[in-house]
């Protein structure tokens, strides 16, 4: 009874751990590192994201200030009469008119956010933002002047007194840089102008696209917003500023989740490693453990000590991981922007905020996960009758029926979960499905291994047969080493298939979207640069231009809580399927006529429309009715896009301008000559980008590959950890089998035969692991492609399998496993090892 | 004066300028400075179109005021204000001072901009209530660009408003409605006599330079009826007010640093306006005034007629500025002592505007006996303040 | 063509094992653990070597089996100088000519009794059915034919040692080396095993060395040598 005291446990634990450490420093180190990696990854993703989101949040907070309601229009704005109306509304304490534009800059692909506001009114709502412009108020009011935020000035390399050319239409206007705000005023790139100057400079006389409202005390903001929404013109929304904030944040949620899942995978692999390390070390120390039990250590003490071992490894790893993660985060924030390279949150210069509590949480997670990894073998060891442990035969854990049943249950659950819709806008069930499939499959490994080995015929070759017999005799041991590799390899396979499929679909999609020879484009998302009717005629008249099509894109707000939808007005010569990467089409009669609209898959998923449904879109301040004629695949915008014919758009809006164009050469002309011709026709062309379609395609694919490089790197690390697991298992078993090797050598087995036997075992196991991992990975890839991808990004992917890549990977892995086995065997067979024959253990 | 004023106005916009605050030095009917600074920074930066005084109308002598046209706005001049000060009395007998200013300035902008937001004119309003029973000064300020019907100073008659703050003439009555931060004024001011034209028929010299002048008329002895709301509680009030309307393009010469001004409704029905412009050494650079007898006879006072002699100073515990709040004033035949309604009527807007000045209700005494009530304004005493 | 090993060795008259001037030291700063060991063992001889713990019995055994190399002197097994052979050649010679019985019950636990015993034959590439027949005979000879299909891990200590003896003799080696084969057994099982070992060595054409510190065990051999600090010598007379 006295032995139940913690002191006793601690001693036991200490004895065990110190012994372990002395014997297995490298293995423990790698285990710790694996946990550290998982925790580091999670912590880094967390820190980067929190930092970016905090930054983004504070930036939006500054942009919207103390507004209760933000009245947002489509990106081409609405009449300023609405402002006058709202400013007079008795419920409104302050109305602040804003022209918020993404301004195209000549020679630059990115746009500059410019706010045209009335400083006198904005001061009440955005004091922090407006505070610093006072000194330049008169110049600002004078017109033509702009104040730049510190980061904008740095990015554009401008100083006080400099000039900033901006693109308006296809021409250029020059703005004077009145001053540069302090970094504290607004951390992100931004230009501030007077609203009157902005209206004039950007050709938006009479238009606004944002009005910030502060309501009088006692007015229920929520109700006011609802009532207001009914009074507003089509396409204009009354939004809570939090929604403005959340919208941007929610854009990146799926991406963040995906990264966190990767971190979780690393952590689980680490836990698995703890599990296998601990299982093997328990096996190895069975006699010592038996002895401890015989000496009076209770079952609970033993179990606690062993769990403590795992947890200690976990804690150490987690601690290291948090430190590592913080450094990683700092590095990522310096090298990439805060959005981890996904380009959806445009924030710069994000500062890392240390978050002690969440970091403690990460430490705890690492420790608990590792503790759990140690718990399973600890329990098994504690349940082992002491006498049997002492005798120390090579009893194996038996393959439990319960775990097999659980495995089957988990697999079924995983399959079922894959069919559930997204939860809270995230593919949570998809991830649950992956987890269930993964664990289910791992639980089935022992049973399957045993079954397969039973089926293995005797080859008649002593080396191979001995190897098979050894494996057959140690199913659980083999399973341990297998589980690591199966988990990491199957995830790698799933990821490889997913990425390959994505790339393949993406490539074909690019081909469909870039049929012409040359693409023209004003900077994406810009509100100021466009090609006028005259510009279009001049382009069409350029020598060498055979045919040309123009497109107009607009941003529409359909739902206050969601990011805007892109409206694309384009020519549709011939059947729509020739122009768009359609995945679904309505009957031909719906495909023609002015009311046809083709929505992207994202639009379909987010707003729940189906083929043939009526669709009402706010075009030029009026609701225009369309019918959904088709659904197309759009890899460019996750937030939804809708295509209508340009003729319909012009009829509705009278807007004949264009932001993009496709040019087919007339056969003899060279792309370079036409490029130059267009530029000279437009007198320079301002911000117009002109690209050969092939170049766009190449660059797009490059960007694609770069975006997935980090994913690959992480996966490769996971596989390395898996391999490390295999190697530990191998070296551990090899050590345990030193006596056996010695005996075999005595009996007359050549050194290379013993090595061959080990290699055979390694190859057999890894072959099985690889085959199993391939099968599992294939299943997981289905979930990734059809569930997680679709629910995260709202687009579909056609499954494509990278055969040679998987083949190469498999062969590499099998070889690596074999080499690992051999290497560990060699270590165990040193001359000294021969004496093991005489050791009694 | 102009340097301080410049800094003050710039500060007004510079501070974390919380919507309600207008430029500090205005508040003062005499305060002109806003006109000056508006052109200076633009010229200094070499950015805005060259500022030229010729773009503004010039104040010339021999130009007769014409009503009701001259009740209205004169947008061709650089600056203009409508200014009401006075004493209020509640039914409980509480005595309070108040001031309401609507200020117009014409900034140097590109007037070819077709935008309805183009700030052809800026409007600023300031209001304050001196509340001796609570020992506090209620104050609030606004600034807006004129236009879109939301803020405007009309031509042709007095009608000026910023959102729901409004001063408007209808016949002999002016209505002033300002719902401000924590308090509200809703007053009807009735003129009991025609406007009193200051200077030479409304041409009022402000300095040695010929162009330092304004058009300036006052309406003293206005009868007040209306209500005052403080912290949600509304009291009916009566009282007497002083109304000023002044417009100009070049008000102060560069040597001026501040001024002292009074507008007193005398108990006998007469009225006294007197001002002096101080130089950097505290010397009087210019002075003037108008004395109206109860029978309507008006005497224009020149520099020789005016003496401002400080009698007691009050040290602001907040800013450390010493204001002469008790005065001995000689204005032509009138010699009066001025006693403040309360000492602390300092408008401290350093946090927002960077400017501090004293503007408050005063009693006029002759031989220790009250002879009138009015307002005293003291600017330019805070030079030693660091202004950001 | 597969030739039974006994057919290759039986014709000669050379000693099964010849040792001369054997010296082995593990550390240069210590006296050698073995020095000046000489021994000749002829066919049919069954020799017991006794010695205290730590005198180098196991070292000697390793040298005899070609698992270790002497610092001086030579071991001639079946006419071949082991010191002149490389590891593979020594292993092949050992595979053919030597059988081992260990103190610990070294069998492969996951193989059946039959598979364990057949291991040397498999290594010598003896084809079926010859291998099966020979294995069965051997199991019969050591009295565990009934256990043939049982996994080795299910056996008792005595049974395991019978399996070990069967494995050591199944390929009819010229030399059987037994290292404390009864160290872990009760006296009754021990005497059975020793009798069995002797019988098997005698019935085969080879020679045997029994290393033990048990006088009772040693006395089952034909003659007894004692290994001590002075080397290998006849048993000191009482």
Low-pLDDT stretches of chain A are 1-8, 338-346, 389-399
Question: How many individual domains of chain C?
Answer: 1
The CATH superfamily of chain C is identified as P-loop containing nucleotide triphosphate hydrolases
CATH class of chain C: Alpha Beta
What is the oligomer described by this structure?
A: heterotrimer
Parts with pLDDT < 50 across at least 5 consecutive residues of chain C: 1-11
Major β-sheet of chain C, in short? 6 strands, mixed
The proportion of residues in beta strands of chain A is 5-15%
Average pLDDT number of chain A: 79
Q: What structural class do you assign from the helix and strand content of chain C?
A: alpha/beta
CATH topology of chain C: Rossmann fold
Q: Helical segment tally of chain C?
A: 8
Could you give the distance between the termini of chain A?
Answer: 31 Å
Short structural summary:
The complex is a heterotrimer of chains A (841), B (388) and C (238). Chain A has 841 residues and is of the alpha+beta class.
Characterize the structure shown.
- The complex is a heterotrimer of chains A (841), B (388) and C (238).
- By secondary structure, chain A is of the alpha+beta class.
- In chain A, strands 12, 13, 14, 15, 16, 17, 18, 19, 20 and 21 form a 10-stranded mixed sheet that branches. Chain A has a 9-stranded mixed sheet with strand order 6-7-5-8-4-3-10-1-11. Chain A has a two-stranded antiparallel ribbon with strand order 2-9.
- In chain A, strand 3 and strand 4 form a beta hairpin.
- Chain A is elongated and about 95 Å long.
- Chain A starts with 5 loop residues before the first helix and ends in a 7-residue tail after the last helix.
- The relative contact order of chain A is 0.12.
- Residues 1-8, 338-346 and 389-399 of chain A have low confidence and may be disordered.
- Chain B has a single domain, classed as AttH-like domain (AttH-like fold, Beta Barrel), CATH 2.40.370.10.
- Mean pLDDT of chain B is 81; it is low at 1-54 and 384-388.
- Chain B is built from 2 helices and 23 strands.
- In chain B, the strands form 2 sheets. In chain B, strands 1, 2, 3, 4, 5, 6, 7, 8, 9, 10, 11, 12 and 13 form a 13-stranded antiparallel sheet that branches.
- Chain C has 238 residues and is α/β, with parallel strands linked by helices.
- Chain C is 35% helix and 23% strand.
- Residues 1-11 of chain C have low confidence and may be disordered.
- The interface between A and C is medium-sized, with 31 and 33 residues.
């Amino acid at each position: 009874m006295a032995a139940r005291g913690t002191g006793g446990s601690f001693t036991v634990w200490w004895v065990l751990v110190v012994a372990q450490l002395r014997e297995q420093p490298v293995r423990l180190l790698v285990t710790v590192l694996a946990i550290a990696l998982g925790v580091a990854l999670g912590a880094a993703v967390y820190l980067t994201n929190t930092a970016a989101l905090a930054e983004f949040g504070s930036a939006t907070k500054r942009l919207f200030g103390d507004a209760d309601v933000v009245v947002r229009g489509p990106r081409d704005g609405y009449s300023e009469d609405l402002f006058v109306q709202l400013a007079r509304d008795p419920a409104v304490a302050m109305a602040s008119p804003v022209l918020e534009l993404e301004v195209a800059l000549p020679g630059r692909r990115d746009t500059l956010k410019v706010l045209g506001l009335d400083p006198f009114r904005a001061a009440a709502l955005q004091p922090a933002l407006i505070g610093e412009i006072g000194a330049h108020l008169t110049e600002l009011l004078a017109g033509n002047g702009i104040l730049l935020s510190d980061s904008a000035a740095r990015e554009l390399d401008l100083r006080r007194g400099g000039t900033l050319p901006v693109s308006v239409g296809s021409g250029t206007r020059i703005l004077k840089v009145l001053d540069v705000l302090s970094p504290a005023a607004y951390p992100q790139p931004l230009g501030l102008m007077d609203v009157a100057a902005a209206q004039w400079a950007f050709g938006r006389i009479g238009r606004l696209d944002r009005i910030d409202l502060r309501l009088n005390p006692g007015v229920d903001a929520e109700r006011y917003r609802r009532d207001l929404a009914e009074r507003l013109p089509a396409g204009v929304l009354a939004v809570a500023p939090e929604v403005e904030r959340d919208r941007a944040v929610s854009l990146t949620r799926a991406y963040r989740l995906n990264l966190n899942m990767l971190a979780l995978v690393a952590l689980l692999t680490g836990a698995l490693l703890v599990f296998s390390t601990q299982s093997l070390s328990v096996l190895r120390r069975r006699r010592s453990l038996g002895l401890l039990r015989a000496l009076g250590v209770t079952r609970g003490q033993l179990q606690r000590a062993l769990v403590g071992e795992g947890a200690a490894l976990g804690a150490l790893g987690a601690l290291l991981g948090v430190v590592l993660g913080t450094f990683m985060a700092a590095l990522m924030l310096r090298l990439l922007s805060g959005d981890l390279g996904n380009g959806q949150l445009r924030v710069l210069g994000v500062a890392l905020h240390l978050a002690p509590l969440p970091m403690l949480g990460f430490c705890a997670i690492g420790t608990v996960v590792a503790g759990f990894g140690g718990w399973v073998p600890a329990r098994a060891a504690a349940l082992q009758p002491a006498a049997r442990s002492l005798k120390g035969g090579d009893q194996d854990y038996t393959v439990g029926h319960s775990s097999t049943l659980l495995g089957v249950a988990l697999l079924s659950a995983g399959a079922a979960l894959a069919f559930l819709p997204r939860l809270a806008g995230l593919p949570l069930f998809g991830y649950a499905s992956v987890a269930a499939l993964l664990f289910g499959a791992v639980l089935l490994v022992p049973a399957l291994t045993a079954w397969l080995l039973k089926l293995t015929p005797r080859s008649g070759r002593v080396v191979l047969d001995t190897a098979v017999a050894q494996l057959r005799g140690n199913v659980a041991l083999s399973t341990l080493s297998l589980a690591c590799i199966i988990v990491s390899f199957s995830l790698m396979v799933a990821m490889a298939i997913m990425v390959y499929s994505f790339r393949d679909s993406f490539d074909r999609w690019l081909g469909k979207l870039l049929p012409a020879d040359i693409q023209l484009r004003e900077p994406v998302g810009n509100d100021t640069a466009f090609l006028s009717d005259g510009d279009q005629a001049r382009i069409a008249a350029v020598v060498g231009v055979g045919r040309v099509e123009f497109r107009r894109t607009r941003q529409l707000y359909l739902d206050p809580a969601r990011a805007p939808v892109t409206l694309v007005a384009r020519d549709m010569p011939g059947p729509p399927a020739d122009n768009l990467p359609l995945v679904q089409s309505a009957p031909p009669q719906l495909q023609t006529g002015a009311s046809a609209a083709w929505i992207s898959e994202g639009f379909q998923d987010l707003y729940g429309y189906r083929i043939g449904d009526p669709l009402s879109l706010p075009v030029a301040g009026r609701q225009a009715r369309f019918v959904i004629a088709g659904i197309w695949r759009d890899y460019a915008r996750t937030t939804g896009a809708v295509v209508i014919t340009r003729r319909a758009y012009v009829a509705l809006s009278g807007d004949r301008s264009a932001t993009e164009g496709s040019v087919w050469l007339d056969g003899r002309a060279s792309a370079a000559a036409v490029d130059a011709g267009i530029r000279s026709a437009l007198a320079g062309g301002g911000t117009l980008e002109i690209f050969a379609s092939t170049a766009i395609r190449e660059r797009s694919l490059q960007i694609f590959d770069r975006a997935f490089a980090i994913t690959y790197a992480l996966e490769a690390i996971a596989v390395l950890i898996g391999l490390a697991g295999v190697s530990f298992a191998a070296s551990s078993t090899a050590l345990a089998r030193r006596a056996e090797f010695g005996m075999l050598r005595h009996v007359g087995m050549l050194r290379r035969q013993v090595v061959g036997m080990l290699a055979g075992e390694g190859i057999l196991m890894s072959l099985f692991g690889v085959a199993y991992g391939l099968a599992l990975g294939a299943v997981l890839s289905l979930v990734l492609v059809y569930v997680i991808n679709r629910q995260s990004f709202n687009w579909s992917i056609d499954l494509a399998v990278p055969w040679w890549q998987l083949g190469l990977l498999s062969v590499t892995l099998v070889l690596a496993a074999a080499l690992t086995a051999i290497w560990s065997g060699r270590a165990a067979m040193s001359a000294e090892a021969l004496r093991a024959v005489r050791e009694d253990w | 004066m102009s340097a301080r004023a410049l800094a003050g106005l710039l500060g007004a916009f510079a501070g974390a300028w919380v919507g309600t605050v207008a430029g500090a030095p205005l508040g003062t009917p005499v305060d002109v400075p806003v006109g000056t600074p508006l052109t200076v920074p633009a010229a200094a930066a070499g950015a805005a179109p060259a500022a030229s005084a010729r773009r503004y109308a010039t104040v010339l002598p021999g130009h007769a005021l014409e009503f009701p046209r001259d009740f209205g706005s004169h947008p061709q001049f650089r600056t203009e204000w409508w200014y009401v000060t006075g004493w209020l009395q509640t039914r409980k007998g509480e005595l309070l001072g108040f001031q309401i200013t609507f200020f117009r300035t014409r900034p140097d902008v590109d007037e070819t901009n077709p935008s309805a937001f183009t700030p052809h004119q800026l409007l600023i309003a300031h209001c304050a209530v001196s509340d001796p029973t609570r020992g506090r000064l209620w104050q609030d300020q606004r600034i807006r660009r004129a236009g879109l019907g939301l803020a405007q100073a009309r031509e042709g008659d007095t009608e000026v408003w910023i959102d729901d703050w409004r001063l408007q003439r209808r016949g002999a009555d002016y209505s002033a409605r300002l719902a401000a931060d924590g308090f509200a004024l809703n007053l009807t001011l009735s003129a009991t006599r025609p406007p009193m034209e200051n200077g030479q028929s409304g041409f009022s010299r402000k300095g040695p330079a010929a162009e330092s002048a304004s058009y300036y008329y006052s309406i003293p002895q206005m009868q007040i009826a209306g209500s005052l709301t403080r912290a949600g509680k509304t009291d009916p009030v009566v009282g007497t007010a002083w109304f000023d309307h002044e417009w100009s393009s070049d008000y102060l010469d560069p040597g001026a640093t501040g001024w002292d001004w009074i507008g007193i409704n005398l108990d006998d029905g007469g009225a006294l306006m007197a001002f002096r412009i101080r130089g950097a050494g505290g010397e009087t650079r210019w002075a003037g005034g108008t004395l109206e007898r109860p029978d309507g006879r008006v005497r224009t006072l020149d520099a020789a007629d005016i003496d401002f002699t400080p009698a007691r100073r009050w040290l602001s515990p907040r800013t450390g500025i010493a204001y002469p709040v008790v005065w001995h004033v000689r204005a032509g035949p009138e010699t009066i002592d001025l006693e403040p309604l309360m000492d602390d009527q300092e408008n401290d807007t350093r946090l927002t505007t960077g400017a501090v000045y004293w503007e408050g209700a005063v009693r006029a005494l002759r031989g220790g006996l009250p002879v009138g009530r009015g307002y005293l304004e003291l600017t330019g005493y805070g030079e030693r303040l660091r202004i950001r | 063509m597969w030739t039974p090993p006994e057919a290759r060795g039986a014709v000669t008259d050379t000693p099964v094992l010849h040792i001369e001037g054997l010296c082995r030291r593990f550390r240069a700063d210590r006296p050698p653990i073995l020095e000046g060991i000489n021994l000749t063992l002829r066919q049919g001889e069954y020799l017991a070597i006794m010695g205290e713990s730590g005198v180098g019995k196991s070292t000697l055994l390793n040298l005899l089996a070609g698992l270790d190399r002497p610092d001086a002197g030579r071991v001639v097994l079946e006419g071949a100088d082991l010191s002149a052979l490389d590891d593979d050649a020594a292993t092949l010679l050992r595979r053919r000519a030597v059988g081992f019985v260990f103190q610990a019950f070294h069998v492969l636990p996951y193989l059946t009794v039959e598979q364990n015993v057949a291991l040397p034959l498999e290594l010598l590439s003896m084809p079926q059915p010859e291998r099966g027949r020979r294995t069965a005979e051997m199991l019969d000879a050591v009295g565990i034919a009934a256990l043939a299909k049982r996994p080795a891990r299910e056996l008792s200590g005595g049974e395991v040692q019978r399996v070990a003896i069967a494995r050591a003799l199944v390929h009819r080696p010229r030399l059987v080396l037994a290292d404390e084969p009864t160290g872990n057994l009760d006296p009754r099982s021990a005497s059975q095993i020793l009798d069995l070992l002797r019988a098997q060595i005698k019935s085969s054409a080879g020679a045997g060395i029994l290393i033990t510190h048990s006088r009772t065990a040693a006395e089952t051999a034909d003659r007894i040598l004692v290994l001590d600090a002075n080397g290998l010598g006849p048993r000191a007379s009482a």
